[in-house]
Amino acid sequence: MDSPSPIPPTPAELDQLLQLVGDAKTTSYFAVAALTSLIYDHVVSFDKEVPLLLQRVSASHSA
């Protein structure tokens, strides 16, 4: 038994698909930008956070 041939998409459906692909790429770019800024913030502030963390750990051990 032969399977039926697929129905070709309409031009409007193709336009919607292209819009979705473009939106997905834009979303991916924003996600990469957000992650990059988060990592940058961690790297820049790491030297300030380590002493604070060590003070907190030593305070909890002395109590």
From TrEMBL:
Residues 29-55 form the DUF6533 domain. This is DUF6533 domain-containing protein. It comes from Mycena maculata.
